[in-house]
Write a structure and sequence with these properties.
The chain is an alpha/beta fold and about 280 residues long. The protein contains eleven helices and twelve strands. The strands form three sheets. Strands 6-11-10-9-8-7 form a six-stranded parallel sheet. It has a four-stranded antiparallel sheet with strand order 3-5-1-12, with helices on one face. A two-stranded antiparallel ribbon has the order 2-4. The protein is elongated.
Length: about 280
Amino acid sequence: MKLTQAYIDNIINIALNEDINYMDVTTDNLLSEDHCSSAYYIAKDSGILCGIDIAKRVFELAGGNVEFETLINDGSMVKNGDIIAKMKGSTVTLLKGERTALNLLQHLSGIATATNKCVRQIEGTKASITDTRKTLPGLRALQKYAVTVGGGKNHRFNLSDGAMLKDNHLDAYGGITGAVTALRKKIGHMVKIEVEVRNLAELQEALDNRCEVIMLDNMTYEDMATAVEIASGRALLEASGNITAETIRMVAETGVDIISLGAITHSVKCFDISMKIDK
């Protein structure tokens, strides 16, 4: 997954403007523009690194005049105490960009690490880990990039990517058959339909309507395993709802194709990384 530089730069500039506004009262009154320092990133936890090129770009947009040497790349495992990158140049730029760069690097590395833990927990099954639309406003593509760095896959990016009939759609319209029929009359031939089902009767109705993907919402392990038998490959089956680190292996072993998790983007712990300036 490769994001456009314009998209990344827009996020960085918004973050820098939010943090600096019109001036950095401390740095601008303390140091001259020609003051130089050396600095480095150090990991204070173990996990998967994500966002190092984005962190580098922060310093370029925050003022430039900083040489950035990447020692560990995205997707690599880092351990507590590892030096991730070294910087040398304008102290003003280093200090103005420090928090924005770390906020993005820590958050994305936290997502990649959380995703990777889930991926490793279901090794040996056919299931894949995907994200959801439960993302922070404005950061969705970055967060979804981090999921792929952690070994996961992306669900739809937005409401334009595919037709997905959730419980509220079905309750508002009046049922699976009517909603799927109405959609098929209007959408193009390239658009798949996914439908959320809450029980095995709804599963059968979705199969009868030839839905390409069926989400099994908050089903028991037994019902999910039965759903796999009933579907028999006629549709991709996605498990979702209250899946945790303790239950994810059992969900995968039911034979579902996809496990979608909102928690890997909306509830992750930031990966602890610090920037240190050499004295």
